[in-house]
Design a protein that fits this description.
- By secondary structure, the protein is of the alpha+beta class.
- The protein has two helices and four strands.
- It has a two-stranded antiparallel ribbon. A two-stranded antiparallel sheet has the order 2-3.
- Strand 2 and strand 3 form a beta hairpin.
- Bound molecules: iron/sulfur cluster (SF4) (2 copies).
- One iron/sulfur cluster binds next to helix 2.
- One iron/sulfur cluster (SF4) binds next to helix 2.
């Protein structure tokens, strides 16, 4: 399991700064989570202003 960032992402970068395993990077249209690296901690969901990271 991993978190997934949905289309409401406004590419602010807050989640990437708070991810303990650097699993989040900037994609073409939104930030994306590397499912293999994500440890499901939920920090990104807590730091996102638009609630874009969702538990998959
Ligand atoms: Fe990173 Fe945790 Fe979000 Fe996974 S759930 S992307 S490990 S902050
Ligand atoms: Fe997108 Fe939310 Fe991450 Fe900002 S914190 S880059 S809006 S997912």
């Amino acid at each position: 399991m991993a978190y997934v960032i949905d289309d409401s992402c406004i590419s602010c970068g807050a989640c990437a700064a708070d991810c303990p395993v650097d699993a989040i990077s900037e994609g073409a249209d939104k930030f994306v989570i590397d499912a293999d690296a994500c440890i499901d901690c939920g920090a990104c969901a807590g730091s996102c202003p638009v609630d874009a990271p969702k538990e998959a």
